[in-house]
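Quick one: C-alpha cells for this chain, please?
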Amino acid sequence: MLSYQHAYHAGNFADVHKHLTLFAVIDHLLRKASPVTYIDTHAGRGLYPLSAEETARLGEYRQGVAPLWKAREALSADPLLCAWLSSLAEVQHRGGELEHYPGSPWWLSHRLRARDRLVLFELHPGEYRHLEGQALADNVRRVQGDGLEGLLRRLPVSTPRLCVLVDPSYERKTEYAEVAGTVLAAMHKARHAVMLVWYPLLLAGRHHALLETLRDGGLRKIWRSELVQRESAEGERGMVGSGMLVVNPPWGLDERLGEAMGRVCPLLGKGSRHTGDWWVEE
C-alpha cells in the first residue's frame, strides 16, 4: 500500500515531538568535528505549505506547531526550543507568520556540514516527485525506494559516525515487525549508530510488539520518549500520542528534551504529558 501522504498531518503534535528529538540529537552530534552520515528511511516531501489543500483539510498543525509558534518568545528561555524555533523561522517567507512546516529532509539537510552526508529514501512516487523539487544541500542524495532495505544495503558507511531516522507511516500492521527486524539488523552492522525510531501511540496497542522486540534485542542503551496528547475516551479509535526510541542516545539528551517537552505539553492541550525512561542492558 502506498496511500499515505504526510501532507495531511504536517506540523501536528507528533511532528513537533519527532523533529524536536531529531534536532536535539543533531545538535549533540555537531559538537564533534568528525563527519556524520545521516539516513532517513521514510523522507516524505521535505517542506509543507500549511495552506496546501491536504494540510489545510485536517489542520492538525493548529494543535501542534502553531501554539508553539505563537508562544515562541516565552519558549525562548529554553535553549533547545529557542534554537529549534529559530530554525523554523528560516523557512517562513514572512517572518511573523507561520506559512510552512519542514519535514525531516529539511531538518537534516539544514545543518549538514561539508563533510557530512545525507541519504533520503522515499518509496511513494508522488511524494518522491515533491522531494526531488525541494532545494537541499549538495551533499544530499535522494533515492526512490524502500528505505528499510536501502538502509541495510548501505551499511557500513564510510564516515566515523552514523545517525538514522526510521519514521514509517505504519499503514500496514506488518511494518512494526519489519521496523524492529531492520533496526536490530542495522545495529548489528553498525553498533555505534545513533538510531531514532518513531512510532504512533494507538489505542489498539500495536506498538507494544515493536517495543518488546527492541527491548529484548540485545541493544546496549535505549531511551524512550513518549508524548501523550490527550486521554482516550471509551470506544475511541486513532492515535493519541507519539513515541520516539533513541538507540545509543547522546549524553544529556534525556534532560534537554525532557525540559523542553515540559514547556511544550501545556501548549498542546489539557491532557498532554511527556514521559521518558531508559532501557539499559546490564
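The radius of gyration is 18 Å.
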